[in-house]
Amino acid sequence: MTSVTLTHAAALTRLGHALSEGARTRILLSLREGPARPTDLAERLGVSKQVVSNQLSCLRGCGLVVAAREGRSTWYRLADPRLNGALGDLLDLVVTVDPDCCSPEGCTCT
Length: 110
Fold this sequence. Notes:
By secondary structure, the protein is α+β, with helices and mostly antiparallel strands. It has helices at 6-19, 22-31, 38-45, 49-61, 82-92; strands at 65-70, 73-78, 102-103, 106-107. It has a single domain (6-107), classed as Orthogonal Bundle (Arc Repressor Mutant, subunit A), CATH 1.10.10.
């Protein structure tokens, strides 16, 4: 087992931050299928290109996605192929959430 360092904790915090916003989570899950352009992601997710652009910027800052220019297009992909498996593992987890606790407006757990 790997010894946990502050760097590890910071990386998990960045992942948690990325997953804390619905559009970012949906972008990451969509990129599990393969690289995509912002326009494609906006269409797939039913959000504006501006929303996708803002969220991709955040995901790049968190080190979770990378961009590659191809001609006039920019393609985004997961920064590390292991993220695909990690996101899949998270999806496979069964978690019971008290519907009165953690709402989109914020956690009210005490």
